[in-house]
Each structure stands twice: as structure tokens, then as C-alpha cells.
Amino acid sequence: MLSVNQLGVQFGKRILFDDVNLQFTQGNCYGIIGANGAGKSTFMKVLSGEMDPNSGAVSLEPGNRMAVLKQEHFAFDEHTLIETVIMGHKEMYDIMAEKNAIYMNPDATEAEGIKAGELENQFGEMGGWTSDSDAAELLSNLGVKEEHHNKLMKDIPGGEKVKVLLAQALFGSPDLLMLDEPTNDLDAVTATWLADFLADYKNTVIVISHDRYFLDMVCTHIVDIDFSKINIYKGNYTFWYESSQLMAAQLANKNKKIEQKRAEMMEFIQRFSANASKSKQATSRKKALDKLNLEDIKPSTRKYPFIHWKPEREPGDQILRVDKLTFTDTSGETLFNNVSFVMNKGEKIALLSDNARATSVFYEILNGQLEPTSGTFEYGQTITVAVLPHENEEYFSGDQDLELMDWLRQYSENKDEPFIRGFLGRMLFSGEEVFKKTSVLSGGEKVRCMLSKMMLEHPNFLLLSEPTNHLDLESITALNNGLKDFVGNFIMTTHDHELINTSTNRIIELTPNGTIDQLMDFNTYLTSDKVKAQKLELAGTPA
């Protein structure tokens, strides 16, 4: 299908990867992973032909069609949504445009008429006669309302454009489908539909994603960029992660516990291979993956930050009471209405809404930054709150452009350099990096700084608004582990399915007409008939 031969890419003296030889075959889904800066997006650009390698070649089997998820949100502004989707199959679209131009020309010659007939046959053989309905079905499945299908792209919100461009890539079942972060800006229901779609996809898929649940759902293979090399391993992300961690532990410390864990992993491999379609950790509805081998996976050079909150005091029985909280903005739009709940000890809440503004405003109210239109809230006397806001620029802007050491020192009771340096080291800021100016920090580095600040506060209650934004897979995994181990309470909003499902035990969804409040995990919430009935009732739609 797609072959990579002796591929090499370097920037100046820095070798990103070299001597790469790989085969991507039909019916498989390959998830590309690697630490920040390893070259994931660069590798995909080389595979798609957008970028030339320094050495080697990429070859697509003759006659195969490739589709790439585009990020050009304004490139199709003058086209309707349906037309934009069909443009994903360039050959079909060009034929459609050519034949329609002939039909619309009153002075068309007899030869042109014959040509139009030939084009019509070609168009039909490609599935063109059902192209409008096929494009509409894709848009609807991705959550784009039918009333928008014939609008121009420039007349729809940016979040909807993402879905249209995704439909464009999926249209016409390309032989090779390449997707870079396809779940960005997708709600949970749409992301699940996409995962189901790709899990059943008959052709080849290559995907980059920071969503571990999505990678587990769709991937039959993991493409790991590490040691300036690229290797393909059978299995999904969870299998790769657990295997690589085990191999690293074996190298570092050979003992009975490691050997016991190894035995458990070998048993897992056998179950995973024999029953891939039924295992929670296995690829959804994909064919069983045979001959998985632990020895195939090498220990990784990746580093994981240490994220762990140690509360200074244990919370009492009174945690948080919210009573009839309502917020209507200056334009008259009600973001949420009459929200009431009591948070109990040990509860970890996932806060959801179809409107991102609603959750952002809710956090600002709980953080004391914004007054509600009506209603009240009250924390218990023993509660100490730490906040990770959706936007953190205010913590890094201002007159002072501090070095990282000094920035963190202002939030620490212990001002000693060895303590601050050690703390930053655990968050992957080592050596001279501790003297970086906060003005040059990347988005991911700033989030790690904010998490450091929160840990130094020793809170027993966390407010987390989109905590995975800008984080790589390693930091997301560490955050997930930290939240699972946290003994206090938290309220969190995130698009990371795995993070919600494994670290929260209560779901609260805000709507303009009321609140859905359920004690259950996220997977159960998404499939619950009770929840679906509540949503219909709040929307005023008969069940």
C-alpha cells in the first residue's frame, strides 16, 4: 500500500530520523506517537508528499487515492458545505465541474455533448450520482445540522468548519487516510462516532492523536518515533505503553516483582491476541491481533513528569454546595440555569456542556472571578482550592519577565534553590532550563508550570478547566495518574475521554434549560438511556 525506503530527515545538524524502512498495509490503522519535537507531524508531511525528505523515498501503490485532513479553515469559504466535502475526492469533483460546465453552456458543440456523456459515466462509476447524499450523511454523522449543509463555509462557525474538513477527508473511502489530531474540537459523541467509523474502516489509516482512548479504539499498530528511529509495533496505545514501561523497569531493576509483572503481561498478550474484539483494552471491532511479542517493544527514552497532589489537610464532610446558580450574558443568552448540587467527600466531577463558554464561566464563578446572575455557592470551611484556568496568560504576563526559578519561588513556602530546582526537575525542567524566561515558554511548559504551582499549594480541592491543552501524551498520562491517586475532590472539564473515564465518578452536564447530574463513569453516561431521556426532556423534545 504505502512504502517507506531508507527515509531520512534532518534540520541543520539535527537528525530527526534516518534509515527508516516501513510498510503500511491495507486494513490497518497506524497511530504515530513520539515525544514533543520527535517529528510526528514532519513524518506525516513527508508521507503525504507535502514535504520532501533529505534522503530516501515514499511510494504509494499505483491507482490508490490518498486523503489528508486539511487545516485550511478559510480555503473553502466560497463553497457550500456539501461541495467542500465532495472536493475531498479531487478526481470526482473535477469531472463533476467539467461536465456541469458543458451542461450549462448553451453553445456547447456536439463533441462536447459526447464528452459530457463520457464524463457522466465516469462520474457514476466513482459513485458520483450519490455524492450529495453521501456528503450529507457524513456531515450529519459528524454533528453538522442539515440546515447548514447548503450554506457557504464562510457563514458557519470555526468549530463546524473542523467537522466539514474532517468529512472532506473521509469522503469517498480513500485507500489511504491521513489524520493529524482529528478529534480536536470534537464533542464526545462525535469523537466516538469517528472512532467507530475508523475501527470499521476497510482501508489504511495513519493518525496522530493525543487522545489515548481514541488511539486504543482505532489503532491496530503503533508507529513509535524514538532514538531518531521509527518502528512499528502491533497493538494499540495501551499495549505499547504498558509494554514499554515494563521493558524499561526490567532494564533498571530485575527482581521478582518485575518477573511477576512480566508473567502477567505475557498472559495479557495471549488474551489480547485471542480476543481482541472483546477486550476493553483492545481495538474496537478490529480483527484479532496475532503474534504480539513483548520482546519486540524497546524501552522508551520518553520522560514523564511527576504530578502528585498532597493535601495539607483532610477535607471535612462539607465540600461544596451550589444553589440555583444561573448565568445570563449581556446579550441575553443563558449559559446555564438553576444549577444545584451538593458535592460529597471523595467525589470527582466531570463538568460537561455543549457550549464551552458555559463551563469556562462556571469555573470563573467558582473561582470568585465572576458574579452569577443569580444563585449562590459555598465551599466547606476545611476546603483549600487550587485552580488550573483555561487561559493562563495572566500568570506569565506583566512587567516582570521572570526566570522560571523565580517564577515558581513566588508560590513556594520553601524558597531554597535546591528545593525549587528539584521540584522543577520532577516537572522535566532540568539543567539550564530552570533559568528560561517565562516569556519564551511553550504552551505545554506553561501548563506544567501551573501544575507545579498547584502542587505547591497542597490543596484538597482542584478546579481544572481543559488541563490537557498543549500537553503531550507523556504529561497527559502523568496527569491522569496524579488525578486517579488524588485523595481530595475536583471538578474538571476536558475533551480527553480516557482522563474523564478513569479519574471521575460523577458527571454534571450544564444546559441552558437545566442540569443533568449522574453518579456514573463517562462510558456509562454516553450510552445511558436514562441520560438520553433527560436530554430530550430538557430540550423540550418528546422521548
Give a summary of the structure in a few sentences.
This protein has three domains: 2-64 and 209-296, Rossmann fold (3-Layer(aba) Sandwich); 80-167, no CATH class; 320-396 and 441-539, Rossmann fold (3-Layer(aba) Sandwich). Helices cover 37% and strands 21% of the residues.
Polypeptide structure, described:
The longest helix has 19 residues, at 256-274. A six-stranded mixed β-sheet has the order 5-6-7-3-8-9, sandwiched between helices. By secondary structure, the protein is of the alpha/beta class. The chain is globular and about 85 Å long. Strand 8 (221-226) and strand 9 form a beta hairpin. Mean pLDDT is 89; it is low at 275-289. The chain folds into three domains: 2-64 and 209-296, Rossmann fold; 80-167, no CATH class; 320-396 and 441-539, P-loop containing nucleotide triphosphate hydrolases (Rossmann fold, 3-Layer(aba) Sandwich), CATH 3.40.50. Helix content is 37%, strand content 21%. Helix 3 (90-103) packs antiparallel against helix 4 and helix 9 (237-252) packs antiparallel against helix 10.
* Shape assignment: globular
CATH topology of the largest domain: Rossmann fold
Q: How many discrete structural domains?
A: 3
- Please state roughly what percent of the residues sit in beta strands, choosing from under 5%, 5-15%, 15-25%, 25-35%, 35-45% or over 45%: 15-25%
The helicity comes to: 25-40%
Query: What is the CATH architecture annotation of the largest domain?
Result: 3-Layer(aba) Sandwich
CATH superfamily of the largest domain: P-loop containing nucleotide triphosphate hydrolases
Largest sheet: 6 strands, mixed
CATH class of the largest domain: Alpha Beta
